[in-house]
Structures are given as structure tokens and as C-alpha cells.
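@channel anyone free to eyeball this complex?
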Amino acid sequence: MRRKRCVKAGFFVVVILAILGIFFSNAAAEMTSSFHGYFESNFILRDADGLQHGFFDEAYGVQQRNTLKFDIDIDPDMRWGSFKVEKVHLTYRGAYDSIFDLAAHRYNIKENIGASRFDYGLKDIRFENDLREAFIDFAYNGDLGMAFFRPGRQIVSWGEGMLETLNDVINPPDNSYAMFFQSPDDVKTPLWMGRLNYNIPRISSLPGLNLNFDFLWIPDIRPSQLGPRDSVAGNLKAGLEAPYINCISLVDLRGLNVREDVPTNENEYGVKVSSEIGDNLSLSLLYFRDVVNDPAVQLKNWAMTPGGPAPSLASFTHNKQHVYGGYFSYQLVAFGTSAVVRGEISHHTASPIALAAANTIMQGPAARLPPSQWVGLTYLLKPVTKTTLSFDKDVRIRWLSNGVTKMSFEWLHKVINEWDDRLDNTYFKSRSTKIRADRKNIREQDVFMVQVMTWWWAAKVGPTFVAAYNPGKHGEGGTGMIAPSIKWYITPSLYSDLKLQAFFGDTKSSYSFGSLVNTSEATFKLGYEW
Amino acid sequence: MRIILISIIKYLCAPMLSMLAFIMGIGGISQAADLPTVIDKTNCSQYKDILIPSMYRGIERGDFFITTGNINFKYRHTDDFHAASAKNKGKYDLSADGYLIDKSTGNYPEDLYGFPFPDIDLKDPNAGIKIIYNFEGQRNRFMGAKERMHILWVNKVKDERFMTGIDYRLYLVGRPPSQKIINPEKVLNYEFQRALEPMSMRGTNTMSYIYWDKTEDKSFAYVPAIRRIRKTGSTTRSDPYMGGDSWLDMNFLWSGKTPSMTWKYVGEKTVLLPFTSLNILPVQDLPDGSITKSYPYTGTHIKLGYEDPKWKGTSWAPQNITYVPRRVWIVEQRPKDPYYNWGLHINYIDQETYVIWCKEVYEKSGEYRSWHTNYMHYSESPSGKNTVGDWDFKVALDEKIRHASIQSRFADPESSTYLPAKTLNPTFFTVNNFLMLSK
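replying in thread with the prediction:
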């Protein structure tokens, strides 16, 4: 354990020293740099009961976030034959969310929660001050091919799917201040890692063969970041009211202390091999040793109470699993079309599947351990396979736009490969026929999505429309999402953005859209960029 | 008697008068001395025949006026280039579907340098496509280039959006014999457009491989919001770039695969073409064999109409331009691909250099839509390398919505052309380099 920590600490120190070394080297006099960024201010209005019960009839503000983000790129002009320091890259993001001052009466959240740095309190969502990315690119371009080694804090994305995470499990999402429908890049948590990307040299006898390898080693283990979980053990009314925590199904944890338990001593690693096959096909295969980002909730600190044994701690644990996957894109020119077909498949070997509400698998009582050592599992680890098939096509729709309209369609299918009767809703089965007894609907799910993007007013206005629909199964109703947005460049540097994300359908649906019906939101944004 | 008189006038005098007008007027114009200093809406009707139709309509509307003049240099390719072109006489031909072939082998001429068709018979039904192959021959002699670029999107009043970036190009065919690159992939040219600012466009990069055989061209796009490289469809090259008024095939006013179009020579005439400088702008030879770039303006772009408070014309009109009469071929092009976004294109190609200078583009429905003009100057390095055909900026004007995109190159220590293989080669255009430079 201690050795692992030393290796990790050494890695961080080496990266930082390398960056500082470049700044202060003799070559620094020759370096060129660029500085670009934006400042934007947004306001998010939420409809408390969803648009299906009236259009913003119960609206309240959930965010007034003011963000400064900028990139600094430095080309130190350092070369040694075929080797080069291509760039040093830094990305900073700082933010202040004034909603916690403007509507302090609504958000009574503790400043600090828990000892772990992953247990966010008010200070973490009210302010942000983060060097999100800091890395160096060491490049090689010579007889052995082309490669770059990128150590530092960074974001890596693998895959083709748009709607859900399949193979893109590397950087966990940061949902402490936004949900998944915001800019994907902005809601990813950067990680310290080493990345080596290598392209084999061109081989005259095998024209068109373009093998590429991507290796990752990640000593920086972080979980999917959630907002403040400020519930209090024994108090069934306190906490879990922060704007982006109350839309996650954690209400069952009220009355417990909720804390992260992240195995920071672990490492993640992975490899991806990509190739161009024939004239039109790109194919990638990958393996990733993953510490699961999403939590598997264990109930701990049990004690005997007048009502029986009860826990006081909900511990968010993160198990390890293997991720096997692949994805492709194919330029379709047959049948008179001109389109791109994309697909992705992932197999996660141990994904935590939540048990039905109030079901718990107890470990400890049978072994006659004292209640303080009991553990209640609220999940089972199961293999899950997800596939997507997508289709991109540019079309001219004269009544919609003078220019080209970009359309994408995606079908997502996910299945829990090994079903377990314990995942069924046995607790309620005998009590109420209104509550579905079996949960076959979570065993196999389909979602269909369409995205349409175009330009209006000579590209001064960029409208986008996204809609997704989960038809529901086994008596469960369908759920859907629409996300129209429109961006307007007021001047070359000043822009505004108006966005709506609304969810509809069966609020009891097992698919995530159902639980989000009450978080339908409109975003108003004004920004300045350079 | 009166009828006879009318007949004489009709059948004799009218043709004579027409011929006289031709000799005295526009037909005889070969120097700007034959022209007024300024052609504007008050006198443009007299000079309609030496203005391409789009330009004439613009002047007639009062969108802008033009200043005529003479250049103080010979705008032509080097003697070496012409000598190499002369050696190509009779060596090359076209396949039935328009691909360039070496007559002796029947294969694509990978070693081609110079104009492949130095003597085109204008009665040849393939004259149009042969002119375009000559255009490619002179363009590809630049071998490789790295250019800083700045794009302004301008409405009727002022600029709306901007982008700066770097344009990388590598030509694998048409290089001088000593600069040949082994090319098993049969690539004609690689392109990489790298967007650097503003922040919302930063990293929105595109990369294309254009093949000289029937292999479908490949295009890739990096999407910063999802940090992924996406393969894009073959018609991407005709999609409006960043939603603007131009598209990737419009680099040099033609950067696509020539056999993907049908080409038809339709005539020749003298027209006025724009120069940004009447004098040579010297450039330097660099140690690797490339040359630096120099432009007759400072900053990122030439001064435009909206930047001059005294200017009465349209916002997008470039200032301080001189128009010079030059003979052009007129060549029509139409896409074979039904999914290509545009219909008829009319090219105005300089006869002396085979440079495409102007282009008018129609919708597939036949409706006139936009016109595109390259603005040039002449630079020459001490070693004799020149910039004939290399544009300073280009204006794409969408006449339907009265909106323009102005793509300018600007002086920068990193900009250079005639890049040799040791400086820019196919490994630069690998997917992993594209990924590394995108973020």
C-alpha cells in the first residue's frame, strides 16, 4: 500500500517538475503560447413538477453560476531529432454559484461534510477553483511511426455512443452541479494519468494499414462526483436537498450519514487498438481495468434499536471490474446513400445493480458477528452488456435551413446478462399489487434517440434538438426526454444560449428519465469568449 | 428605297459597328490603360463584358467599386516549371471516367510534375477537365504548406463571428522529382484545418484524405465537447464550413477529387481580376527549402468595408484592391455525386497560370447562390520560388442571404510553403497526431 502511494506521489511530482522545467529552461525564450477562454453566466430555472403537469408552473432557480474557463497552450520549441516537446497544456476553471446566497433560505447545506475529499459540502458547489488539465505532450515522429506520451491531469474519451456511457468509463462524471445533458466535456472529472498513443509506421507493402495503440495508466482514482449528501443519521427529514442531489434516487438514504469510500490505493489501466480496415471501416477494440465510477451502497454501523437493528452509515463503495468493448464507424456509400454508421459494444463484468427499494442483503448476522460489523448490501454485482447502433446523415431541409442539417439517430440496448431472483421486488410482492413485483423491465432496456443540428441566420444562430425515448416494458410506461437549444452569437465574442431539458412519462419507470421528470429545466446563458 | 436602306443598315452596318465596338472597346482591352481608373455603378454598364456577371451585378447595385491598374511584375510560373510542363506534352491522357493516366502504362502518373497538358486543344471535349488538371499541377508544386488563417463571417453591416487557426496541406502528386514521397495509399492530398480560437470553436478540427484513384475520400472531425474523432460522410467537403458561406472543397477554389465532377470548357474572355499589391513582396528562403510568407496588410486580414467609416459600399468589400485585365478560360463543373450540396459551378481560370481566380456557384435546383474570389499578390524568394496561385484571402459571398465569409492568411513566423517531406509528410496526418493536436 505504502509503495503504491509513493509511486503515485512520485508520478505527480515528476509531471509538475517537467512542466516547471520547461518554463524555466533555456528553450523558454523561444516558446510561443496561446491563451483562450470564456466567461459565462447562467441561470437555471427548474419546474418542480415537470412540464407534463404544466409549463414551469412551479418554477424556482437552482443555479446562477458564473464561470471563468481558459486554456493556455505553450509550444516550448524543444526538439531532439525525431523527438519533440509538442506542447504544455493547462486548463483552468473557476466558478461561483450565487444561488446559494440569493436563495439561501432554500438551500440550507452544510459547508463541509465528511472527512473524504469526495464528500462534497456547500463550499464545493458554491465555489470552484480547479486546474482541470495540466499535461505535457512528448512526441516522436520518425522511422518507427508516430507516438505521443502525455503525462498529467487530463480527460480521455473512448467510444462512439452519445446517450449513455458504454466504454467511456475513464473519467467519472461530475454531477455535483449539472446533470448528464450538459456539455459532456464539462461534466467529466479530469484524472492524473499517463497516456501513450502509438501509430505504427506506414508500410509500403500494406497500404492503408493504420494500426494505432492507446495505453492508459491511471493512479488517480475518483468516483462519480455527486452533490452534498448532508443527511443526518437518525433524522428522516434533514439533508439531500442540494439542487443536483435531490434528483438522484437517494431519498431512501435520508436518516443515514452518507459517505464516500473510494479505493484510492488502486490503479486503473487500459489499452485500445484501432485500425482502418478497407476503405470505409474504422474499428477499435479495448480493454479497461476499471474501478467502477458509480457507487455500490453498503449499509454499515448497525446497532440494535427499539424498532430492530438499524444502520447509521450508507457507505458509497466502488468495486473493480473488467470492461471489454469495441466500436466502429463505417462510411456508407452503398445504395446511393452518403452516411456514417457507428456502433459500440461494451461488457462490464461487475456492474452494481440496485436492489428494489428497502431490499437489503445482510452479511454478518448469519456468522453471529456483532451488529457493528454487519454490512447490508443494497446491490448485486452483475455483468452488463450495452450496445449502440447509430446513423449520421447530412441532409438539406429547405424549409428548416438554408444550409445543411445534420441528423443522427441512435439505438441503445442494454441487458443484465445474469439475472438473479434477488433483484426482483419480493419485499412488496405480497403487500401491494400496484407495485410491480418483478423487475424484468430493468433487465433489458432500449432507448431511441434523434439529434438534429443546423444553422440559421448565416450561422449566427445554432439550433439543436435532441429527443430520446424509452418505450418501457412489462407494464411499465414509456419515458422520454427533449432537449432543444439555441445559441446566438450577438457579436463575434458575445453569445447567449437558451436551452431546455425536459423529461416526460412514467415517473415510476426504472429508466433514469422517469426519476428526472421533476427536474425539467431551462437554462439562460450569456457568455464572452476569446 | 427605304426598305433597302434599312436592309443595308441591318445586314451590313450593324455587324461592322459591332466589330468596331469590339476593337475599340472591351474586346481590345489587354491593359488597364484602356480602362478608367474607377469602375462604379455610373459607368459599369460600359464594361459589363470584362466583369464576371456576379461582380458586375455587385457594382451595378453600388455594393462596391473597383480600381483598375497594372501589375509591376510578370504573373507567371517559373521557366523551370514551364520547361518541366513542356516535357509532359503527349505523355498523359484521361480514362473514360476522367482519371488522369500515363499513356505508356495506363496508370495514374505518380511522377507527374508541371502541367500534364501543356497544349490543350479547345475543341477537345475533355478540354475542361484538362484545364483543371493543369490547375492541380501548378497548385501541387507547393508540395506542403502550413498557413495561419483567419475567418470572418460578415453580414450586411459588420462582422458577426471569427475564427483563427492553421491550415496544413500536403500534396503527394505534382512534387518536383527530388521531393517525391512514397505513396502506397494513392493519396492525392492531405488536409488538416485546425481551429485555435475563439474558445467555442477551439479544437473543432477537420482532416481529409483525397485519393487519386476511386477510393472514397475520407474525412474526420474532432468534436471537442465529446473529445472524440468522428468519421464524417463524403459530402462533408461540400458542407458549409463552420456554418459559413464556403466549404472545404473551396480551398484554392477547388480542392476535391477532379473525376468526381463533370467539367466542360465553355469559352474564354478578358476579365478584371483582383490583386492585393501591384509590386513584388519579397520573401525569404528557409534552411529546409521552404519559403516564408508575406502579405500586403498587417494584422489578421485586409481592411474591409465595415472597418472604414467613410466607405459607402457593402460591409464585406475588401479595400485597396487593384483589378487587372487578364484572359481566362471559363469552365463549368457539375457534381456526379447526387448528395453533393451544390449544382453548377462556373470557374474563371487564368490562361497564363491556370489559377482559378473566381467561381460562381448555383444550387442543385439551378438557382444562383454564391460567388467566390481569390485575391492574390506576387512574392518571389531569392532562390526563385514564387507564390503564383497562392491566395492572400478569399471572399465567399452568399447572394441569397447577402452574407460573406472572408478567409484570410496572415504573416506569421510559422507560416511557410514549399515544405519538403522532411518537414511535412504523411505521418503528420495520422489519426493520433490529429488527436494530439486537437486537445
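from a first look: The radius of gyration of chain A is 25 Å.
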